[in-house]
Amino acid sequence: xxxxxxxxxxxxxxxxxxxxxxxxxxxxxxxxxxxxxxxxxxxxxxxxxxxxxxxxxxxxxxxxxxxxxxxxxxxxxxxxxxxxxxxxxxxxxxxxxxxxxxxxxxxxxxxxxxxxxxxxxxxxxxxxxxxxxxxxxxxxxxxxxxxxxxxxxxxxxxxxxxxxxxxxxxxxxxxxxxxxxxxxxxxxxxxxxxxxxxxx
Length: 200
Description:
Blueprint: E1 2-3, H1 5-16, E2 22-26, E3 48-49, E4 52-53, H2 65-75, H3 82-91, H4 94-100, E5 110-116, H5 124-129, E6 137-142, E7 161-166, E8 169-172, H6 177-199
Parallel strand pairs: 1-2, 2-5, 5-6
Antiparallel strand pairs: 3-4, 7-8
């Protein structure tokens, strides 16, 4: 089980380790992306197999990125990172997208993907939909939920913003307290159902 970037790792591990019988990905991605270091310049691949970099999509900010960042600083509004990942996905060739996609259909067990349609950190809903046709994969997306879905019954349905990207400029996570709470409750029950089924 993994959340966000940890969900990317969970999917990767399940695709390479036949002992894993159930994988649960919260607001994650079955598509590998480069890392995002300080400055957003020349990021390296996030995942290695030994010393070999796994194929991933490179994040390259648009010319509008600095203007968006300045606007967020001036207005103190949460900053959306989703456009960075969408741009990386859209600018890639079909071959690059295919190489960076984790083959969750080849896992030895079952995979549950949970995503929010208003995820403002990255397009987890769109990325998970790429692999949702496989019979061993279940994808549940919640149109009004954001990135912070997971353990249910947290106060206010989890946060709508993440840590600060810059001083007093937090990362936008999206959704609403009510939508995140409903998605977390439904997703948690789906996760428990899968685990009970596998572990019986």
